[in-house]
Design brief:
about 0% strand
Amino acid sequence: MISVRVSREEYELLKASYEARGIRSVSELARDAMQHFLNHDNGNTEASQPHGDCEAKIRFLDARLNSLQGELAQLSRLVANNLVRKES
């Protein structure tokens, strides 16, 4: 068992990220991330891979895009909730 502490804001970002991906929980998201890491870490360093730097940048950008999608979904929910409250 692994336990990780995250801030409330980090948890909300993780929640938005896993919901956007169709994952059911933060635990499942963490397991998925660890499996991805284990399956793609075959002991090679980026220096030994001809396109390692480019691939690392693409992975970084992909992760950032997913994070931004989660943040956007969270902001959309907040705006929608605020509009519903104003109409009431």
